[in-house]
Amino acid sequence: MKKTRLIKIILKRTGALKFLTTYIIIFAGVSIGIWIVEPNIKTPIDSVWYCFSVATTIGFGDITAVTILGRAMSIFLSICSILIIAVVPGIITSYYIESTKLKEKESIAKFLDDLEHLPELSKEDLQSLSVKVKKFNRK
């Protein structure tokens, strides 16, 4: 549950949610378009199945586009899918790395600040600092 919430927050903050929403709209639109123009595709479910196989670049071959418009929509969906698969994980990874770096910098800054003000620290703070140093030395 926490990971799902975290991913939603990251997607929202980075703008990747707009990419995904746009992609879902494109996928739905192409599915409807394929269903309308392709004579081999009789049901909306078949159209979604075909678009799924195109989007994932699996291409099972059980259903194929035969019209020029259907093939053009398939190419468009393939390109959009490849871009989404490349961009969204990159955005999430980049955000995570930057977040980790920021936490590390804050932690280092706090550590250095504690060292600068060593005589002013309480006994509990000194013990905490000692534990941090010991953990650091183990790595």
Automatic annotation (TrEMBL):
Membrane topology, from the record: Multi-pass membrane protein
Q: Which organism is it from?
A: Ruminococcus intestinalis
List localization entries. Answer: Membrane
One Pfam family name is Ion_trans_2
InterPro entries per the UniProt record, alphabetical: K_chnl_dom (IPR013099), VG_K_chnl (IPR028325)
Q: What is this protein called?
A: Two pore domain potassium channel family protein
Check the record and name the PANTHER family matching this protein.
POTASSIUM VOLTAGE-GATED CHANNEL PROTEIN SHAB, VOLTAGE-GATED POTASSIUM CHANNEL
Main location as per UniProt: membrane
Report domain Potassium channel positions: 26-96
Is Ion transport there in the keyword field? yes
Keywords, alphabetical = Ion channel, Ion transport, Membrane, Transmembrane, Transmembrane helix, Transport
Hydrolase as a keyword of this entry, yes or no, is no
Any Gene Ontology biological process = monoatomic ion transmembrane transport
Q: Which residues cross the membrane?
A: 20-37, 49-69, 75-97
